[in-house]
Amino acid sequence: MFVGLGGGIGSIMRFLTSRFTARLVAAQWLFLGTLAANLIGCFLIGILSGWMLSHIPDNQSFRLLFIVGFCGGYTTFSTFAFENYRLIEMNQWGILLLYLTASVVLGIIAVWLGMKMVS
């Protein structure tokens, strides 16, 4: 129940993040909505995990609702993979490399920053 509730809210928030981003960028940069959602999700999971580990390490309800549910619903690996596939199809190798690198490196940095903020 906690996973479903958090996941539903996270999915709605991801949709809104993508729609908002789409209004700000040209069509060939629409993947920035996914990048934004994934980086925000990485930052949030860092904050939530760091806080949980130091304050309520055994609270499974919190973990299921916010970390597994909300962050899992908010971030999206399948869309990330699909968008990378489309960039390959369109021979957009420079953008592909930028998107892959930014997603992985900045995602790890975002988790680290989130955890540092609460420690």
End-to-end separation: 29 Å
- SSE string: HHHHH
| Overall number of domains | 1
The number of helical runs is 5
Low confidence ranges: none
User: Radius of gyration, rounded?
Assistant: 15 Å
Q: What structural category arises from helix and sheet content?
A: mainly alpha
**Residue share in β-strands:** under 5%
Mean model confidence by pLDDT: 96
Give a verbal description of the structure.
84% of the residues lie in helices and 0% in strands. The protein is an all-alpha fold and 119 residues long. It has one domain. The protein is globular and about 50 Å long.
Q: Can you give keywords for this protein?
A:
119 residues; mainly alpha; 5 helices
Describe the structure in brief.
The protein is an all-alpha fold and 119 residues long. 84% of the residues lie in helices and 0% in strands. It has one domain.
Task: Show the helix and strand layout.
Elements: H1 2-22, H2 31-55, H3 60-74, H4 77-89, H5 93-118
